[in-house]
Request: fold
Amino acid sequence: EYSSYSAINYSITTNTQYPNQNLFIDGNVEIISGILDLQGCRIVVNPHTPPYTITVKSGGTLIMNEFELINSSGTTHIPTHIFACSTMWGGIINDGGTLDLYAAKTAFTKIEDALIAIDSEGGNVQVRYSTFDHNGLGILIDGTNISVNNQSRINGCEFLCTDGTISRSPLAGTIPNEHVVLNGINFNFPLGT
Reply:
């Protein structure tokens, strides 16, 4: 089903851009330095125990937003969509880096099927116009090690479980009771539109 998909680079140390591509993740991805820029990509995460993750280290940046396809018919906005192949994947871990899902309102970035879609224990998290669906938890931010000058924010997002329960193991059949958890936040954290 995903034979036309290409492997993503698993160790990012320089600016790397994937515009409008079909990608698969078959190992943990680490953004050590530089920027991983996913524009209008469809990304499938293969099953693994423990589940694969994308980790953004201090000095690294992950950007996930739309791709504008311009042709004679006009402009099409293609969102970035990351999802699991069969069992749930680990999600995005922000370990002191920058996570930028500040998409345009025309094409919401979509993160599905993660145990924790975004788990941040430091760094900067900016999420706008993104859809979180079928995740054990949408966003977890632990502010204990985050500066009071932090610019993190969540605006205009949708948190869903469209079928009522999660459909993939190990959480199949469960209803997510929380979508956003903020722990130890000691700075202004804009949440909402």
